[in-house]
Amino acid sequence: MPPLDAQAIAALLRELAQRSAAGGGNPYRSKAYRRAAESVATLPIPLEQLVAERRLREIPGVGEGIAEIIATLHKTGSHPTLEALRQEGGARLRDTTDDSGGGQRHIDRAAMLLDNAVRTLREARPELKRITAAGDFRRGAELVGDLALVAEAPSLADGPSTLTAGGELTVHLTDAAHYGITLLHATGSKSHLQALTALARDHGLTLDKRGLRQGRKPLAAASEEAIYQRLGLPFIQPELREGRDEIARALANDLPELVTEQDLRGILHAHTDQSDGVDTIEAMAEATRARGYSYLGVADHSISARYAGGLTTPEIEAQHRLIDRLNKRYGKGFRILKGIESDILADGSLDYPDEVLQRFDFVVASVHSRFKLDREAQTRRIIRAVGNRRTTILGHMTGRRLLQRPGYAVDVEAILKACAAHGVAVEINAHPWRLDLDWRWHQRALELGCLLSINPDAHSTRELDFTRWGVTVARKGGVPAERVLNCRNLAQLTRYLGKRQ
């Protein structure tokens, strides 16, 4: 039989993962098979090249054992481990990976795959320049379906072309003269491109994959900026290109200046080892300082969340004494803020009395239980918590876990109105499995007068970098820096929190 290609091998690795999990095997092994399958499926170069050159271990997530499995699968179409699992489990296998994602990935996983693909492509094709991520990822989608790269080749005899080596990654090759139009089309969205094409037609122009033209005369193709400019538009950031109202706003010179990572001045909503985090307060503070921020808002879990190490009143007092000692050492340049993530109970009250809540600099109020309350009851519950004078931020409003569970049923509009009325900031939870509040509601939140807060919900020093994904979806929602609570510097934030107290 002919050697198997990358797509076929990826499918067999997924089967290995599924059968291993179904048979009660080592869950880490199953996960390793699944990650290896995804890496193989998104290779930017032919798998047979890596096999021939004995470079399989260069594939992310592929160690010696999985490299041997891939080589055997490539050569024979099977492997003893797979055959043994088939005999144990039978021919039929329910697809345990079906979570209704439709082939989509969390944005952080997509970033890793694309970074790996860029690195592999640069090594295999050093002549390529300007390798840029495109597709859903460049538009900042919370779930990424199409993995795409655009790369500039020094010369292309037949013009721009595409290649797919692993089957789940598309590489668009183009020359310098067509780089902009290729990147524009590879980024999408389809609705945005249709709106641009219609606008070009209104001006008597043609916009297609060759560029913007007037009759046969080329007008713009080398850069996206030039294409938008010739259409009478300012540059539209990729995150906004969803075919909603971005063209109309661009024509009216009403596009927002989107928040950036550099605009963030500090971290709010981070957990430590005093609840369910893995690092100490001091380690989290040092990591926050190292990233250039001027404050860290510690918000460990509250007493109702005993499963997550929720803090008792004596534990709160001890934590605050530690924070005071650390703040004395840090001086005026950096401050640890005393916060709590207080559970919203079923009746909408918070799980500490007011005399405890008033000790905190800020309070993140969040739902962590009773997800199946009906829409009216859940909404009423959250609105009551928002009305608590000690609530500073409403945490992850819908409680969704992307590709795992939908959010609980709530009237988002009503909750946003309550947040605006009570001056409670709405969290954009930056954990890549949450990204909640959904970006489709950000514009409405701004219209109603809400303040937003981009929070990593970090449980380790590494997870502080989740802020990247929160900023990404905030940009997609059209959020400017001036409407983000933690874009305020330490002095501004301290004044704001003091007034709320």
Topology:
Layout: H1 6-22, H2 27-41, H3 47-52, H4 64-76, H5 80-89, E1 105-106, H6 107-124, E2 129-133, H7 135-138, E3 143-144, E4 147-152, E5 161-163, E6 169-174, H8 179-187, H9 190-202, E7 206-208, E8 211-214, E9 217-220, H10 224-230, H11 246-251, E10 267-270, H12 281-290, E11 295-301, H13 313-330, E12 335-343, H14 354-357, E13 362-366, H15 375-386, E14 393-394, H16 412-422, E15 425-429, H17 442-448, E16 452-455, H18 467-476, H19 490-500
Parallel strand pairs: 4-6, 10-11, 11-12, 12-13, 13-14, 14-15, 15-16
Antiparallel strand pairs: 1-3, 2-4, 5-6, 7-8, 8-9
The overall strand count is 16
Task: Please state the structural category.
Answer: alpha/beta
Number of helices: 19
> Any low-confidence stretches, pLDDT <50, length ≥5?
94-98
Taken as a percent bin, the fraction of beta residues is 5-15%
Strand order of the largest sheet: 10-11-12-13-14-15-16
What does the average pLDDT come to? 94
> What is the 3D form?
globular
In this structure, how is the largest beta sheet organized? 7 strands, parallel
Please give a structural write-up:
The structure is a single chain. The protein has 501 residues and is α/β, with parallel strands linked by helices. The protein has helices at residues 6-22, 27-41, 47-52, 64-76, 80-89, 107-124, 135-138, 179-187, 190-202, 224-230, 246-251, 281-290, 313-330, 354-357, 375-386, 412-422, 442-448, 467-476, 490-500; strands at 105-106, 129-133, 143-144, 147-152, 161-163, 169-174, 206-208, 211-214, 217-220, 267-270, 295-301, 335-343, 362-366, 393-394, 425-429, 452-455. The strands form 4 sheets. The protein has a 7-stranded parallel beta sheet with strand order 10-11-12-13-14-15-16. The protein has a 4-stranded mixed beta sheet with strand order 2-4-6-5, sandwiched between helices. A 3-stranded antiparallel beta sheet has the order 7-8-9. Strand 5 and strand 6 form a beta hairpin. Helix 1 packs across helix 5. It is globular and about 75 Å long. The termini are far apart.
